[in-house]
Amino acid sequence: MATVTFDKATRTYPGAERAAVDKLEIAIEDGEFLVLVGPSGCGKSTSLRMLAGLEDVNGGAIRIGDRDVTHLAPKDRDIAMVFQNYALYPHMTVADNMGFALKIAGVAKTEIRTRVEEAAKILDLTEYLGRKPKALSGGQRQRVAMGRAIVREPQVFLMDEPLSNLDAKLRVQTRTQIAGLQRRLGTTTVYVTHDQVEAMTMGDRVAVLKDGLLQQVDSPRNMYDRPANLFVAGFIGSPAMNLVEVPLTDGGVQFGNSIVPVSREAIAVAADKGDRTVTVGVRPEHFDVAGGQATSLANDEPAGVAVTVNVVEELGADGYVYGTAEIGGEQKDIVVRVGGRQVPLKGDVLHVVPRPGETHVFSTSSGERLSD
Amino acid sequence: MAAQTVPSAPSHAPPSPSGTAGPRRGGRHTVRRARSAIGAHPWAAACFLLPALVVLGALVVYPISWTAVRSLFGADGFAHFVGLGNYTSVFHDPRTLTALRNNALWVVVAPSVATGLGLIFAVLTERIRWGTAFKLVVFMPMAISMLAAGIIFRLVYDQDPGKGVANAVAVGVHDTFAKASSYPGAKPRIGGGLAPSGGGYVTTSAVAPGTGTAALPLVGVSPATLSGAQQAAAPTHCPAGAVCGTVWLDFTPGGGGVPGRIDPGEKALSGVQVQAVRDGRTVASATSGRNGTFVLPADKLGTGQVRLSLPAANFSAQFQGVTWLGPTLVTWSIIGAYVWMWTGFAMVLIAAGLAGVPRELLEAARMDGANEWQVFRRVTVPLLAPTLVVVLVTLVINVLKIFDLVYVIAPGSTQQDANVLALQLYLASFGGGNDQGVGSALGVLLLLLVLPAVFFNIRRFRKERTR
Amino acid sequence: MTATDTPTRRGPGAATRLAARAGGGAVRLGLLLTALFWLVPTIGLLISSLRGPADISTSGWWRVFTDPAQLTLHNYTELMGNGTITHALLNSVLITVPVTVLVIVIGAMAGYAFAWLEFPGRDWLFLLLIGLLVVPIQVALIPVTKLYATFGIFGSLLGVILFHTAFGLPFAIFLLRNFFAEIPRELLEAGRLDGAGELRLFARVVVPLGGPAIASLAIFQFLWVWNDMLVALIFANSGSAPLTVALQEQTRQFGDNIDVLSSGAFLSMAIPLAVFFAFQRQFVSGITAGAVK
Predict the structure, then answer these.
(1) Contact across the interface for B439 and C261, Cβ inside 8 Å
(2) Could you report the per-residue pLDDT of C104-138, keeping only the tens digit for each?
(3) In this structure, what CATH number is given to the domain that contains residue C210?
(4) In chain A, which residue's Cα lies nearest the Cα of C207?
(5) What's the ipTM?
(6) Based on the domain organization, do C181 and C45 belong to the same domain?
(7) Domains along chain A?
(8) B2, part of any domain
(9) DSSP of B1-57, one letter per residue?
(10) What is the pLDDT of residues A21-35, one digit of tens each?
């Protein structure tokens, strides 16, 4: 068991102008399950491969525990990796696949057997030990890949999108299994995915990357409640947060007919930069459908924003309304969550008000979070 | 494009992860990276390459350059620098010129015929249940040596129709369409009233129609071949104004016969064509019957004297088949043997390419109203074009280097007529010529001829890589 | 009125179907005849080899269909009693097997280096190799003769083996590089993470995964060398000559030696044909993979 530290680790591909991973700094606790998440090309896989030793590190350092592994060969790092396509040796049986690393390390045959059988028991693979990977289902192959990592009892598990080759149902099921297994083994794990749902449900902490730059590292809860910038706000959560650019006003920002309170300091910061507008973010579930009781600027109009319903997605317990609203003279797409019993019809007009304290304000120019 | 693919790689794993790190995809350095090192020590590459480099360097690269230099020196080693002299003498040597001409014939004919046949076979066998068995049969000669193929075709092309299957067939076909002559070697008895004329014979004296019978005695036919023939007889009822007569073998077994007279025991010659000629024009013709008699009908004869003629067709030598390995045909015959060996190669490659043509495209063309021929011509062939080019180029390279087949099939007497560059090189440098300067020049020439193929291959490889 | 309707409606359909079937039948017949045509030369040799020399010199092989009594193993017993031929057969084996092994080992090593190791000038070197694919062996005959004379291996089995190895390598490296390059990168990375060094990665991961390509290559190499005549004609002497050369020497008196030639040729074909029929699949996949030589 060990901590993992990325210390300003940088990777620049030969001939590329921009670093694929730029001065990455993350400190991963012993036993922690950290998920690296981001869109395609954000550098999350490269970061993982740098930790694995499959990718050169051009700057900074990577440490496992107290050991600097920056320039160590993969086999000397005491890590195990689960690949997206599992990378099982097609010419070896399941048992040989799982035991290959131990065999190379010169571990005694009987010991290999015991360890492989133990891992197989955990993963429910005992009856498949004699088979070749070709004769296994996708889910079983995935478990063999896990088993191959477990058998080695490494200090760190590395997982590179290990679920993306499974079908949707199996993915959800395996997600919990992997998370549970990791808790049980207590091995520090770095997990790469492009699926933010996977990230939020599995990680102790989540690190969001974009264009090789770390955006935020935090627990899933904090990540959701206090996204550090516009990108994280838009990336985490499904359906995504509504982000609307609105003009600055005294004592807050105007969102339709409502005023969203923002601290004076934050407004001052934005104004100092010369911004005339800020971006307000509201998650779909943080809209209240107004019944006239909310604060309204003009008394003759209903409070909040008028949203014309385009599509309604009914999910049973609740529903999502996809509509358009005129805000600041422009048509904006707005998503609102409504209760399952009060679903409006297509073409209806809803008046919605953001719930106080559940709004996020970001600088339009820098994307930084302005509200608390 | 099946012809360019590698046998399917381990298939359990899908291609490398997509949707992960962006800089890994697209752009030129990606290709490099995809193949790049996997953290190996630099000396590892050297160790893995060393044996190959040593062998290739010593036995391929070094010899090529040596040959290039050697081609500029005379027969007696590096003593005499002759510049391009060897090349000039090569191009003035009738043997080399024959070889070049033959090589040109080979390059034009052999690859295109093999590819064409291969295409036909591949397309036709596609939907036939025993197509695989057929392909196996056509493909089989690929596995045997050119020497064995040479021996096989020496047997096939044997001049004697009784032994060589090619001539047995040729004679069989010939005799089916042109009737075999009945009595090769037969000739009139001297003083028998018949004189030679244009390969056949004609009577020395003219006869007038209706003035009796004509006797046409012949000798020179072995009685043994006539064992089934009837006793010759004089014509009995000769219609008025007709000319009748008998053709027979004027030879009495056991002796005692009178020349010119039908003696007992003398055999009739049936099936002999007899023509009546007046003023050099054939006016009537008849064929001798079972007892040797013939009747030239009066209505055709008209009036006036005629001479009777036995045309050459009655006596021509038997058709002996084609001289496959003679000076004119030898190269064609050897090309035939080559096509026999290599059509299977073209067929298999084309069949693989055909299997790679998406069915939907053909179905779409049919939906667009194309008939089967149009589908083939407008969709299949264009899609197959890259395969066809690869097959053709491969065969051209192969044909340029042809040696064994010519060396084994061509008999000594026509080896010069069948000469090709590779054979001439062998003969010049090892087989008695002993002029290694000329041999080297020929080698360089051969190398230059395959050079375009090198560029073709490199381009193809580059294209495959960027794909 | 279905009774009258059905035939009229069926009429044209049946006609076209009949025409199509006739067309298909013609194609089938044509193919059948072609197959026969393709088989006749080989069958001719086989039957000839089973007839006595006297029969061969007087009549065609098809006579056995009317006179099966002509069939005899005389030629083969004669052949097996011929010391030159049996020795040549042994030489064929002694040349072909080592060449096949050498080409595969050296070729696989180089193919792996080209596919997965980084070294300066790699792309350039590989293009050169593609160029070597089509180099006619004739270009190297004279200089290698001299080279062998210098090292005293002219006329020896070793000389023949080395020459074949050298000219088999470009194709081998080309084929194996392309195959190895298709191995998913993750498998090699997994091997590295599992702690495998360069040699072990090669021997335990790359070579086993390259199995199909190596099998194709082995078959090809075997056939090429077994069937070669030119190389042995030049570099072997009477003691090291393989079967092809020994038989070739008999072709000068073709008619007189037809008994040994026909049986010998068939013997020389038997092994490649057995290989061919046993491994058609690998043979075909090898051909489709490397149509360049």
Answers:
(1) no
(2) 999 999 999 998 888 888 888 998 998 898 888 88
(3) 1.10.3720.10
(4) A91
(5) 0.84
(6) no
(7) 4-234 (3.40.50.300), 241-363 (no CATH)
(8) no
(9) -GGGSPSPP--SSPSSP-SS-GGGSSSHHHHHHHH--SS--HHHHHHHHHHHHHHHI
(10) 999 999 999 999 999
